[in-house]
Amino acid sequence: MKTFSRHSFRIAAMAVPLLAALSVCGATTSGPQKEPIRHRFIACDFWKKMIWYVDQANPAANWQADLPAIPMELQLVGKNRVLISFMTNGYGLLDLTTHKLVERHNPKEIAGSISAWRLANGHTMVGVNRGKGVALVELDTDGTFKREWVIPSLHYLRMIRPTPQGTWLLAENDSLAEVTVADGVADDKRVLRRFMLPRPRNAYMGVRLENGNTLVGGGYAAGLFEYGADGKLVRELVAAQPTGLSNYFYGGIQVLKNGHIIVANWTGHNEKDYRPGWKILEFDPDGKVVWHWFEHTPEAGTINNVIILDDLDTGKLNGK
After folding, report:
1. CA–CA dist 151, 168 (Å, integer)
2. 36, 169, 192, 279: most buried by Cβ count inside 10 Å?
3. Within the chain, how many helices (H) and strands (E) appear?
4. Hey, which residues does 95 pair with through a beta bridge?
5. Which CATH number is 245's domain given?
6. Is the pLDDT of residue 14 over 90?
7. What is the domain range of residue 82?
8. What is the layout of strands, in order, in the sheet containing 124-129?
């Protein structure tokens, strides 16, 4: 486990050093002077294979935890633990108090796993890439296989999310697919509809909004896309970053209680394709960036998923 403070970071020289420095403190990006936004969050670092815990109001509490594999997904599951999905390596539970993995599950039935989601009954749904199509695999409370649903028409699965309607949202290739796991439905009929990205590619995550619309983190399309119930694109959100910084890959998303949208801007696999950019963005309901987090390498790698913890109870399951 590693610790750090906000004073330990080395911000790289670039065209906008003042904005970069302000972002460490969680400053707003525009508008009249007001109290800077400061968040408490956990984030997946794809490049460095670790979890970040950042408390901008209390930097002395910050920590990092090394992981055995690349983290892809985060979910609060109660008892002050977070479920972490690993790329092709199952999932585990990280204790937020000890900063250590306390469980690890990777049975043979989920070989090729990419995303996992804990259900209210204690079971875990796992998204798996197969040679032909993708699968949703349900594991029992002890991590043993229970059943699965195969969707042969989908490819290159990323994150999975349940909806209030009992369906599942599967981010894959150039779309977000809504699928059913209802009994009696043929595998080739499970896709109910697809929300197509307006440009390629690799959608990362989708969530159903309270108004019934669907929000998608568009991957390399480098935007957030909101679709109406009819499947038509309603709006697109893209941050206007300063010169020298880029929107590379919009990954994990979270809708806050105030309606603001958080998105991780993943900036590359490693030093070979790394592109500097604000690593976490916050859009207000009008689509304006009101907060961002940016730490330059080598301290931070590339952030692909995040949970803002401010008003969430880590002692309870967060099933949204």
Report:
1. 12
2. 279
3. 1, 25
4. 81
5. 2.120.10.30
6. no
7. 2-27+37-308
8. 113-118, 124-129, 134-139, 145-151
